[in-house]
Write a structure and sequence with these properties.
Elements (H helix, E strand, L loop, with lengths): L5 E7 L3 H12 L4 E6 L13 E2 L7 H8 L1 H24 L4 E2 L3 E5 L2 H16 L6 E2 L2 H7 L5 E5 L3 E3 L1 H14 L3 E5 L3 E5 L2 E6 L2 E10 L5 H4 L7 E11 L15 E3 L4 E7 L2 E6 L20 H15 L7 E11 L5 E5 L2 E8 L9 H12 L21
Parallel strand pairs: 1-2, 1-12, 2-9, 5-14, 12-19
Antiparallel strand pairs: 3-8, 4-8, 5-7, 6-7, 10-11, 11-12, 13-16, 13-17, 14-15, 15-16, 18-19
Helix pairs in contact: 1-6, 1-9, 2-3, 3-9
Length: 387
């Protein structure tokens, strides 16, 4: 399909956030151009394990300690709404979202205490009813755990299937997809203009959902968005007799530094141990074609010690580059001084628990509709907090 000279909305970034936004706007009748990168890292969502979990990188207790209870509660409530929205989208598109629940596991006594307090907070906020693992359940999850709490609302999404379905729905709604080597945003006469090499695309609004490509798309992101390499593996061999049997429920530990689940008796998916790459911990890396040997070694040691996986077990390894922000929270909403450019980036590799709500908020505003449930984007996600 040829690229038009103008459109209602240009969406920069073909990952989950960009596709959700573009598809929603196209279905509502807007003329939308979705611009995907022809070079650079693959969209992080293309390589995600698909764990959909309530909350953010830290436990509710740590979020409360760092952000205050009001903000922490708001972040968790936002996440709960996002998970509902994501479930509605997957149901509409007939994409599997398995309601497995998840175990939030503690690898040390300090984390165990934090999750005991987190369980109390989630119950008092009316957002979840976690329960503590029994001794038998704890043994089945992993070796040497100090505790675990089960969150019933979590699950596992087939992300690749959702991305494919969103592309098909966007195409059928009349959207235009364009693969470009580079795309940068300018402003002319108060409106965004996307420069695509020698071509110019005029639009009424632009959404930057380009992840680690955001700094290239607009100068605002150059000082607040940076890349981080996340590494994963899939073990395809049977574990040794006597090892923990595992569960199809995701296990999230050490504030999401380690997460895993078994999708069958012979397949174990794991992400984590980026802390082994000291001192940067993967920050600043943009090459997703290789894996860190130090991280691979620590992953193998973890799986051997905690889950009984043989060190020589066959496995597939891969890495993905995700976008972090300077304060650790995503960026959602208009840019300061450029209100027609909308940010939707900085998900730290864990956007499945927040991104759908962000899309609901920004697409409603673009279409002139009331904010979902009468609530707008919280101040702690809006871009002007960084000014």
């Amino acid at each position: 399909m040829s690229l038009p000279s103008r459109c209602d909305v240009a969406v920069l970034g073909g990952g989950l956030g960009g596709l959700l936004t573009a598809e929603a706007l196209a279905r509502a009748g807007a003329s939308v151009v979705l611009i995907e990168a022809a070079k650079g890292p693959v969209a992080a969502s293309e390589r995600a394990l698909g764990i959909v979990g309530l909350g953010w990188l830290d436990s509710p207790a740590r979020l409360t300690s760092g952000l205050g209870e009001r903000t922490a509660r708001g972040l968790l409530a936002w996440s709960a709404l996002a998970m509902q929205s994501l479930a509605a989208t997957t149901a509409r598109l007939d994409v599997p979202l398995h309601p497995t629940g998840s175990w939030r596991a503690s690898l040390d006594a300090g984390e165990s205490g934090e999750w005991a307090e987190s369980s109390r907070l989630l119950k008092s906020w009316g957002l979840s009813e976690p329960r503590s693992a029994s001794p038998d359940e704890l043994t089945s999850i992993a070796r040497g755990l100090h505790g675990a709490f089960f969150l019933p609302g979590d699950g596992v999404l087939e992300v690749g299937g959702l991305l494919k379905a969103l592309r098909a729905s966007f195409d059928s709604a009349g959207g235009t997809r364009s693969v470009q080597m580079s795309a940068t945003l300018e402003e002319r006469d108060g409106a965004p203009v996307v420069r695509l090499g020698e071509k110019i695309l005029k639009c009424e609004l632009a959404v930057v959902s380009a992840g680690v490509g955001a700094p290239e798309a607009h100068s605002f992101f150059r000082k607040c968005v940076y890349p981080v390499r996340i590494q994963a593996q899939r073990v395809t061999a049977r574990v040794t007799p006597g090892s923990p049997p595992g569960t199809a429920c995701p296990v999230i530990a050490r504030h999401r530094f380690e997460s895993w689940y078994r999708d069958s008796s012979t397949s174990l998916c794991f992400v984590g141990a980026r802390w082994a790459d000291q001192p940067e911990m993967g920050a600043g890396v943009t090459d997703d074609s290789r894996c860190s040997e130090r991280v691979s070694a620590r992953q193998d040691e973890f799986l051997s010690a905690r889950l009984g996986v043989p060190m020589d077990a066959p496995r597939d390894r891969w890495s993905g580059i995700v976008s972090y922000t300077c304060d650790g929270l995503p960026l959602v909403g208009p840019l300061p001084g450029a209100p027609k450019v909308i940010a939707l980036t900085g998900w730290s590799g864990w956007g499945l628990g927040l991104i759908a709500r962000a899309v609901d908020e920004i697409t409603s505003a673009m279409l002139g509709l009331p904010a979902p449930d009468g609530a707008g984007t919280p101040s702690w996600l809006q871009t002007r907090r960084l000014v």
